[in-house]
Amino acid sequence: MNIVIPAVVAAVTFVLGFILHKILVAREIRGAEAEAERIVSDANRESETLKREALLEGRDIISRERVDNLEKLQERRVNLDRKESQVSNESERISILKEKLQYKQVTIDKREIVLTETENSLQAKHNRVNKLMEEQNRLLEQIANLSREEAKKLMLANLEEELHHEAGMLTRKILEAAENKAEEEAQKVLSTAIQRCAADHVVENCVSVVSLPSDDMKGRIIGREGRNIRAFEAAANVDVIIDDTPEAVVISCFDPVRREIARQALEKLLEDGRIHPGRIESTVAKVTSEMEKRIRKLGNQLALDANVSGLHQQLIRHLGRLRYRTSYGQNMYQHSLETANICGLLASELKLDAALARRVGLLHDIGKATDQDIEGSHAIVGMELAQRYEESSLVCNAIGAHHEEIECESLYGIIIQAADSVSSARPGARRETLELYVRRLHKLESIADSFEGVKKSYAIQAGRELRIAVRPETVDDDAAAELARMVARKIESDMDYPGQIKVTVIRETRASETAH
User: Fold this and answer.
1) What does pLDDT average to over the chain?
2) Element (H, E) at 330
3) φ and ψ at residue 161, rounded to 5 degrees
């Protein structure tokens, strides 16, 4: 019995220990499984975080690469457009040079024909002289038996009769030529007199300053790292100057048409508020297209106002471009219209074709509508344009001769010179800087002071009149008149000036006495 009880107790203890051990092992297993699940969950969360971060980083890299590729593509596109424009301009320049060479070749051929005709005429005259000499020798042989005095008298009588006949024929030719050209010469004198009237003048000029709603817009115009301003300058082919001027941006470009396109495009961008390279390109392209339509509309309106029809569309386009051209501050669009009207009036007074005169006046400065790719003075370039687009020879010659660079072949060349001067002579028509104005006044006074006997000279009425006070004991009344003439001739030879300058010499002698 004593042995059974301990054995039972031991068995129970063993069973209880085994059960307790099993419970502890199961608890450890559950704890380990919970820890494993926690570790797996943390690992999953960490992997998701890493995956999300990697995805975001990849998207940033792709976005940056896309922006860089777009900028490179835009730059390549701008370079290609610039090269295409250069090739187009070079092709047009080569075409113009080819036409010039053809024109010069035609001129040379004409001169060769004239020289050949002149040579033939000289040869005919030489043969005629030889025949006359032979006939004279024969006559001398016939009268060889006469005495010296008789032969002399006979020769003098023959010579006198021949000279009377030749003199009569020459007189008749001169009278006929004078009657035929009397009216033409009178017209030339009238036109030349009108042409001497000139002065200076100011009209509107193209504006290249864009007002901003606030200075904050300057940063948006520049863009990140200057991206926007570079895109705008490349698209519009202008320079944008952003300085300390409050609420203003300056657009700089020699071509007034491009400057106007840039100004309108920038104003549209500011109004829209969306300023980025893509929007800049589309806006500049749209404004350029609108400007081309506006230029043609302006050209048609100018031709309509001047009552000139039948012009080539390219000439119409060049006329429209004159709206954005100035000369000494005078707008070429208005100047061409004024000149056309004046030409028509002058032609009517001189009994010429008023419609043809208006056409010459309208087209006389069309060479100023071209750009720097076409070389030559504006008168010659305008003449070549008119020839290219099939204007008549009278019109072309008058355009080329309106600054006397070639010889006038008709009165229309004289009329356009007069009308051009009259249009520019209207007070305020052209701008003269203060420096040039003051320099001209000093020059007038220095010319007068250089003559002996001059006490003091005064340039008055904006340089239209020069008054000279002389020393009465040195310059008498006759010398005063001669001095005025000499000063006027000196001014004509040494100065370039618009209009006329009146020279007045003042000589005054005063005698005073005091009565006591």
Assistant:
1) 78
2) strand 330-331
3) -65, -45
